[in-house]
Design brief:
Structural class: alpha/beta
Oligomer: single chain
Number of strands: 21
Helix content: 25-40%
Largest sheet: 14 strands, mixed
Mean pLDDT: 76
Distance between the termini: 58 Å
Shape: globular
Length: about 525
Amino acid sequence: MCRRDGVPVVALADDLSGAAEVAALLRLPARLVLNPADLGVSGTGGEAVVVDLDSRYLDGAAAADAVRAVLGAAREPWPAAGAGTETDPTSARAFRAVKFPEAYGSPLWFKKCDSLLRGPVGAEAAAFAEGAGVLVIATALPAARRVVRGGVVLADGVPLHASPAWRAEERAAPRSVAEAMAPLPATDVPLETVRRGPIALAGRFREVAAHGRHPVCDAETDTDLTVIATAAALLGPGTRLLGSGGLAAALGRLLAARRADGAAARAPAPAAGRPMTANPFATEAAAPASPGPPWAPSAAGTASVTPPGTAGPTTVEAAPAPAAGTGAVSPVVTVAAGAAVPVQGGTWSGGFVEGAAAVRDTPPLLVVAGSAEPGVVEQVGRLVAAGARHVALTPRQLAGDEDVVLPRLAAGTVTVLSVDGSGGVRPGAARAIVAGLARTVSALPGRPDLVLTGGETARRVLDSLGVTTLRPVGEIHHGAVHSKTTDGRSVVTRPGSFGGPDSFVRIAAALRPSQQGVTQ
């Protein structure tokens, strides 16, 4: 039987970069599947299964059907041996736990939505709420300066409907989270209610659910999101969660604390006269009136936690390297190749040189910058300044009928492939451009490691390469998740709007640490 601290987790996301982000933030060994039909294949006990629905650009009905397909897959009978599914009893334990909760523990269901409310979020939320006792919604992402106040998303302090965040969308931004969640019946839960604490907030959730509605929570900080996740955990196994990566991170903290408590409970008793070390992540509080689900905190008063030594992906930081110079590097690509570029923890001299002894046997690295976000231009510039080669294709080239064929990339080199946005962003043209990028990458000779920005770009490229499963192995910086394909290729996915000016440099430094200090 699955232990209470080994609860199975199933998460859904509407694009690939969001799915990878959730897989990293849950702090569990994870399997990221690109096809819901693969949901039950090769699972292992205690892992999270994260499904990319690839629904960001679907219409509402199709997106809702994609959600229902995953929920339905978990209710189908276990496939017979020989049906093409992994039959090893250990490797399939996590998925059996989803199908047979009475024996393996109730699964935790989480639905990732875009923090800027892009895509068919309402149709997906309504489908995801089907069969749930209550769906708790919190879309704030404080790490990206996106908060929810008075039921309204504020991006850098500006209401979403008045911000430029939707400039590439074909429809107007919603004026509130509740409006975006339609047709799901929703009730706003103000910040002052959230900050009364988990027990009072859980009571408010019950009141909202008793009226057939679902709570939409204000939140401005990660602590607010931890309180929301803790309150939801007190409601019982019929509760589901929907929110941004911020809520996924809060859930990951609770799961980690629960595992720490379970490990402490199973530890041998201390020797006589030797004091027991207190759990530093829990506070004294009365137990909830009704038993919570397996992922509930040990004490109702548990606050924000960040326990060390947790399982799952780890954060990778770029290590310092000998610098050819110091100071800020201009984003303009005319900066001399090989210049030292500031990264967190020091500077990095990429020195991507064909044939250098340190990199001769290293696969090439291809960065595909498919996002229309303005910050990506500076990120590309800094990577080029560090020595990467730059190929910029126009939207006309990418959306045209003729494929763009690039030459084979030399071992150890780093190339960045981007879209020339000098002509401005054309709403409605993004999908054709991304499809062109995917065709270009799939036609490239060899097997370079990949850095893919933007969920749509990442998904189309991996589809074109026939990749259906990823195993996250690390998070280079917030949202930049390093995964491995089944045949060992490295793939980093990252939302287009994430990362500072040195994002690509940090990613390249993490993937190619042996090239630090190589010079021309």
